[in-house]
Design brief:
mainly beta, Porin, eight-stranded antiparallel beta barrel, 2 helices, elongated
Length: 245
């Protein structure tokens, strides 16, 4: 009798070991429901994400981004928003540093600046080499364009050669545009953080071309001319977003 019992145990053990686990499937039963859920078919994957780029608020940009999954490890992100005042641009503006600058002349009360909304656009394809579906580390080339509108009605400039003020008639836009091409490395948290919220941290480099107005003296008077400068730039920031199905 004992021998029969041992033989039975060996047969059961052999049967368990010989099972083909590669074809197994987990079936989930919902409470009080006869419907079954097949994880391989019925689990939804987030393929859309809306984000707010709080990292470039100091550059005078209120920008929203939308990211869409194309495949498991590839997505495309696009952004659109409004610009107001770029608080850091004055460090590179020639008008800020010339002796004839209207910005530095506090005694001239005629030059009243009116900031009008501009616009910003952004495009960035993304590669998630490890986790995928908009989660984990990513690599991304990026294109950005921003336009700022600083309006002046017939601004006056001090002409150093004549020691007199000179008026340039008409409404003048002394704002600037910024166009840049760069490359980012970033990390985006998954939806388990704070429910469906995500945090997107990025760092990168770019070449930025600023187009702006500058003063030119032709021997008799001052005129406004268009100029450009291109500088390497470090990019870094953070976005907060919400996953959507």
């Amino acid at each position: 009798m004992r021998g029969l019992f041992i033989v039975s145990l060996l047969c059961i053990s052999f049967s368990i070991i010989a099972q083909d686990t590669t074809k197994s499937n987990v079936i989930t039963y919902a409470p009080f429901s006869t419907k079954t859920v097949d994880p391989q078919k019925d689990i939804k994957i987030d393929k859309n994400c809306i984000k707010w780029n709080i990292g470039i608020l100091s550059r005078g940009v209120f920008l929203f981004n939308y990211e869409r999954v194309i495949s498991e490890h590839f997505s495309i992100e696009a952004g659109v928003g409004a610009t107001y005042q770029d608080y850091f641009y004055g460090l590179n503006s020639d008008l800020e540093t010339t002796g004839s600058s209207l910005f530095n002349d506090n005694s001239n009360t005629k030059n009243q600046q009116v900031i009008k909304p501009g616009f910003a656009i952004e495009l960035s394809p993304r590669i998630y080499p490890r986790d995928g579906y908009m989660e984990g580390f990513y690599f991304a080339p990026i294109f950005r364009f921003r336009k700022y509108n600083y309006m002046y009605d017939s601004p006056q400039f001090y002409n150093d050669s004549t020691n007199m003020y000179q008026t340039i008639k008409g409404s003048q836009n002394l704002g600037h545009t910024s166009t840049e091409y760069g490359f980012l490395i970033g990390y985006q948290t998954d939806q388990s953080y704070w429910y469906d919220m995500t945090w997107d941290y990025y760092f990168g480099v770019s070449y930025r071309t600023n187009s702006y107005k500058d003063l030119s003296y032709n021997g008799t008077s001052l005129t406004l001319i268009n100029k450009q400068n291109t500088i390497p730039t470090i990019l870094f920031g953070i976005k907060v977003g919400l996953f959507q199905f």
